[in-house]
Amino acid sequence: MLTTKEAIENRRSIRKFKPDPIPEEHLRELLNAARLAPSGCNAQPWRFKIVEEENIKAGLAEAAFDQNFISRAPVVIVCCADIQGYLDGTVSGIQDLGKIGAVEDRIVTILQGKAKILETIDRNEIGPRIAANVAIAIEHIVLRALDFGLGTCWIRLMDEIKVKKLFGWDDNIHVVALLPIGYPAEFPKERKRLALHEILID
Ligand SMILES: Cc1cc2nc3c(=O)[nH]c(=O)nc-3n(C[C@H](O)[C@H](O)[C@H](O)COP(=O)(O)O)c2cc1C
Predict the structure, then answer these.
(1) What is the Å distance from ligand 1's center to 127 Cα?
(2) Ligand 1 shell residues, CB under 6 Å
(3) Which CATH class name applies to 4-38+52-83+122-183?
């Protein structure tokens, strides 16, 4: 098992995969890591579609502007935000946070006001606003995958409408990213990163 530091430092985006299948229990562990992520008001809007069927993986690769390596991963997780789930989860989450005294009453009131406003907004606009919550859950999967020797690659370059058409999803679902997963068949070097001093704002 890797330390968090080792996982963060060893992770690479993997675009070449061995065809070997991923054990069911390891996939469950990955989803469990996602489940435990933090989210605004503990709303937990993340939802995941596990794709193993060759024709659907091919459809996903095509929807991602023919990034064909996606279809060569044994599993692709389609990572989504559930808008209604978010709206409902926010209301109950705020109540829970207030009840246990994790946030002050005045913050509960502000959050409730914000939740009401969100309900009036077009669903297509809410998705991108809540995507950060899903992104955290995705990165939990990405890092936990390393414990099982698995590699992943975030995919955001995709035609969301095409992805949703593959599954018949309506405007309640916002697709945040595709995540091909498998055993790496490449071991890329560390990519260039900004230096510490470059990421600090004066
Ligand atoms: C939000 C996000 C979107 C990305 N979208 C794509 C993508 O569509 N296709 C791809 O090949 N890589 C994609 N990547 C991977 C990046 O290219 C990669 O993280 C970056 O080059 C740094 O390399 P590393 O992950 O190996 O450190 C994405 C990464 C993130 C975080």
Answers:
(1) 21
(2) 12-13, 15, 67, 153-157, 188, 191
(3) alpha beta
pLDDT-based confidence at residue 191 (cuts at 50, 70, 90): very high
Instruction: State the closest ligand 1 atom to the C-alpha of 188, by its place in the atom list counted from 1.
Output: 26
Span from the CA of 153 to the centroid of ligand 1 (angstroms): 6
pLDDT digit string, tens, across residues 53-63 = 999 999 999 99
7-13 long-range Cβ contacts below 8 angstroms, 24+ apart: 7/143, 7/144, 7/146, 7/147, 8/143, 10/146, 11/142, 11/143, 11/146, 12/151, 12/184, 12/187, 12/188, 12/190, 12/191, 13/152, 13/153, 13/154, 13/188, 13/191
Distance 165 CA to ligand 1 centre (A): 24
Coil, strand, or helix at residue 46?
A: strand
